[in-house]
Specification:
Length: 395
Amino acid sequence: MLGNSIGDMVKYWEAMNNNLRLQLGNIRASFQKSFYEVEHAHISPFYGYLRGSVSRAALRRIAEELLRVDYAGTNRKICGCTLRTSYGLPCACELGRYTLGGIPIPIDAVHVHWRKLTMEVELEVGEDDGSEVDMTCAMDELWRRFRSLDVIGKRALKSRVCELAYPTMTPLCPPSEKLKTKGRVKKKGEKPAEYDVYRDPSYHEYVNKESQSSQRSYIEDVVNVESDGNCGFRVIASLHGYGEDGWPMVRRELGLEIIYKDRSTLYDKLFSNRLSEVRESLMIESFGSQPPEKWLSLPDMGYLIANHYNVVLVCLGNPCMTFFPMTSSHSPNISIYCIGFVNHNHWVQVNMKEGFPFPPVTLDWRKFHSRTATTWMLRFAGRMQHCQLLTPVLA
Ligand SMILES: [Zn+2]
């Protein structure tokens, strides 16, 4: 900062002042980044309460610590809790407990030091008349704008407001078709046998060869996930924009769906005396591989997924079935989640071409869906018949 040793106090002072300003500017810029920018690693709903409220440096430390959960689990001794004791950030065993419960990391778990994203000094109590933090005018203006917009504008504005209001609910991910293909799944057109849902041996018992090749021609891409007994939930998490690692959230949300009051009579009828069994299958006690009774099983989970996320769920492989929401009516811009069961033990995400045929719905769906939900069958009748023509059941 000083070119040479010649100069007076004024020159030193100016040089120091300039340097400090530069540093201040850098710190301000980093606060702005923490406030407005989301790193790809932090799009998971686990970070929902922290995004934009906690420094990115802290988020990066937490993301690193999350990797230790695989071997530390919820065990304090193995964890050592260094991140908690020296940085005031959630350590591996703590993160493990949130993960198991499918709970987003609470903001209180992060020391206030990491939550300060401004250079301003806190105002003394009484010094502020409240006008600076009063949002009434802004909210009124927001309402005025909302009312003046057309349906598309309303939808866009609502989704932006929801991002602020429900930080852990709004998927910030790009649509699923842009997801990277992982693991051993390769380029389009040359899928390895183990991921081809239509080469699943058991499927041959049900469908003839011709129909398989017709349906196979609709498969655009297959996306693999880690196989640890949570794979089905990983696929749904990924399709829903949570990212594969958001699987504990899906388990928790489906667990809440079963006891959701508006549909509790529906589930009483659907699952009857197996209700608690279905609920248990969603809860896990430990990390690592899950036993078969904890896997995503059909048709039980199919109903819960379609209802909770209000999506059409298409399952390929064996069994092969479609789930429409059971209590809502048809809506034109519905998401279609397509998953495939392979090797009798693994779920994958299947990206299908536009307009692919739907497999049939279950008998219980026909039996228990609400009157308004009939609209799903009516609107998709063409695609369902098409599928029946393609897949004649062998006698
Ligand atoms: Zn710990």
